[in-house]
């Protein structure tokens, strides 16, 4: 210690002897691990009169009460987040993924009483809108009005093509209709979704827009499934954001396609929002080939391991087309679309944009 | 200057006091000394040979005369200041410019020369070819005088931030005054052009107020921002004409002197008309509709409109330029609304693409936000607008008209949500529209009418007009309009008239709002309001 400082009297003497009082019960040191596991010590603690028993009961009751309250709180927190003005929705606890609930979607309750604005960067056309229209046909109709913001001078061809397709969306017979104003605009990232500037913050990113709509329309899954879905959607979003380093891209791809290992669709046995998000992403940029190939390889190898016999990517694709055909027979026109979505990881990468659009129209 | 005061006024001028006499003598002595000194100063200069004779001076008044010293001037080619850049370095050029500022510093004289919105620095330094007298002459020229300057263009090592041509300067070789300005100016163009926000930040707090500007409009109009505003205004007018003509519209001219007030009657100017009186037209509405009834199908007109409203606000003028159009349609008035909406989009695009420099010049001085719009324009129904306002906490009835603050608030809400400064509000309540507006077939409370807004202010009000004489009479009665007064108007529809709709905009207001300016007087070259008839 520096000698230039005042010398102070020690605050306590660490070596002083501590006198232990003798007029109380002697207890074993609680902090001593070995002592705690000693059954004798508990005996001493609980060794009391009838008065003490009452006290323990009182404590137990109190603990029960606290646990109950905690349970309640947990239940409250696990409910899906609803937009302001909406009353809390019942949680559909079914494990059926994004399969539609039968009751009509009440848009007003969800705070979507007016039209919503979907600002989209024309470089990244949101094909997901087409996918959604088919995925939720009969449950929710989409009425999309397209505008071009003054910050965009010329609309690129893919964007213009999508605009035509959206305009051609026939009004369905669903009980609810969501009016979307699609604005081609120079936005940060790929898209920005505005519900009401007064009551909510904008939602950034196409994948997050899908996530939000899904939570409104399809409700929430079980905790585990929801977390897995959210995680994969996060990966999907990460892939869509250009700032993610290349090294991480591969793991994100793997994460997204993880579901194909065990089930027909990216998430469970039904087409889900994840399939739509992924398909839209792949339709958007066919040129992002390097990372994509990696993902394909990863899937192919994993498939090879998972399914007993080794199938090549090509064979897999053929098999899937057959599957799609079968679904076609069952589901009608929507099946083709779904098939296109499903084949996302393999077929989408290899086919040209034109072929894809043909498929869609078909 | 001091005026000698007579200390003994009773004595009169004839007999000055001794003190005063002494003072006078002293003054006289002083004056004599002064002239002597001045003469002594001039003497050596006179002795010196002026090497620059014939390179500077005042040009005789240009009266387009031939012969004499003018002969050598013909055929001289001039460059525009805005074309002068580093590419023309070391070349000699003639320019005709105004002197914005001059600053003499020893044997040098720096000048800033301006041609319209472009400025360039000029330098004159004493040398073997430039005499002291030349430099002195240059430093005594009044600001805002018009000059012919011959100079060689040289690049500068450091950018000249105060001039638009910042890479080059003029090494003046000849300088002739074509038209001299008065030495005292009511306002300096430099002050009038100072950016509004900069004046607040810095110590330089010379602001020219609006009235001084309007009283000395020709000087004020010389600022780059004003040069830009009126060029842009001309652009709006031209785009309006071009786009509509391309769409098959016919330009018509309607009378400005009318016999009876077309709308209401309270706010019209009366002028004497021989033995009786006439009114100044407050809208070409009736004549547009008559042109439609006369099978012109699509018409537009550009002309003065007069409103005798005693409102002294930032957005009212008593005379303004009206751009009006009327169009027959087949089955739905939205055909017309779409044409008008697209017209605006085209105008905005035209301005954005062709008037970038002008917009930049206005931004320099007034610091505006760029105008944003959607293509095709955003169309909201009136009830939707009301719903948005209610969401924001405004209490408003279903059939109430929007007050000006409500309109502004709605404009901000729309901007926040859709990011557009232009939108159309469709289906206004019938109760708040004039009697000739067609009621909505779906809901009798509403009407087939629309307003268009720029930056939250209404710029166009239009509707499908009733083209049936009987319905028109019924609606007029309902509104309590005197049928006698509108007989000519109603009769126009008795011989068959196609369904039609239209609207009109004020040119000044559109330019003001496009540029985000705060006063309509900034976009009217010689504005007329209840308190101003001159210049």
UniProtKB/TrEMBL annotation, chain A:
- Biological process (GO) annotations? translation
Give the principal location in a single coarse category.
cytoplasm
Q: Which UniProt keywords apply?
A: Cytoplasm, Protein biosynthesis
Q: Where is the AIMP2 thioredoxin-like domain?
A: 113-203
Would you name any one GO CC term? cytoplasm
**Subcellular localization, per the record?**
Cytoplasm
Keyword Protein biosynthesis in annotation: yes
Q: Where are the transmembrane segments?
A: none
Ranges for region Disordered? 289-362
Domain of life from the UniProt record: Eukaryota
Q: Identify this protein by name.
A: AIMP2 thioredoxin-like domain-containing protein
Q: Which organism does this sequence originate in? A: Nesidiocoris tenuis
From TrEMBL, chain B:
Please state where this protein is localized.
Answer: Cytoplasm
Task: Return the Gene3D superfamilies for the record.
Answer: Bira Bifunctional Protein, Domain 2, Nucleic acid-binding proteins
- Which Pfam family, just one, is annotated for this protein? tRNA-synt_2
Residues spanning the membrane: none
Stretches assigned to the Aminoacyl-transfer RNA synthetases class-II family profile domain: 230-535
Q: What is its EC number?
A: 6.1.1.12
Q: Please list where the region (Disordered) is annotated.
A: 1-46
Under what name is this protein listed? Aspartate--tRNA ligase, cytoplasmic
Catalyzed chemical reaction(s): tRNA(Asp) + L-aspartate + ATP = L-aspartyl-tRNA(Asp) + AMP + diphosphate
| Organism of derivation | Nesidiocoris tenuis
Its taxonomic placement starts with: Eukaryota, Metazoa, Ecdysozoa, Arthropoda, Hexapoda
PROSITE patterns membership? AA_TRNA_LIGASE_II (PS50862)
**Coiled-coil region(s) at which residues?**
none
Q: Source organism's superkingdom?
A: Eukaryota
Here the segments flagged for biased composition (Basic and acidic residues) are 24-37
Which InterPro entries does the record associate with it?
Answer: Aa-tRNA-synt_II, aa-tRNA-synth_II, aa-tRNA-synth_II/BPL/LPL, Asp-tRNA_synthase_2, Asp/Asn-tRNA-synth_IIb, NA-bd_OB-fold
Recorded hits in PANTHER family, A to Z, give: ASPARTATE--TRNA LIGASE, CYTOPLASMIC, ASPARTYL-TRNA SYNTHETASE
Instruction: Please report which protein family the annotation says this sequence is part of.
Output: Belongs to the class-II aminoacyl-tRNA synthetase family. Type 2 subfamily.
Any idea which UniProt keywords this protein has?
A: Aminoacyl-tRNA synthetase, ATP-binding, Cytoplasm, Ligase, Nucleotide-binding, Protein biosynthesis
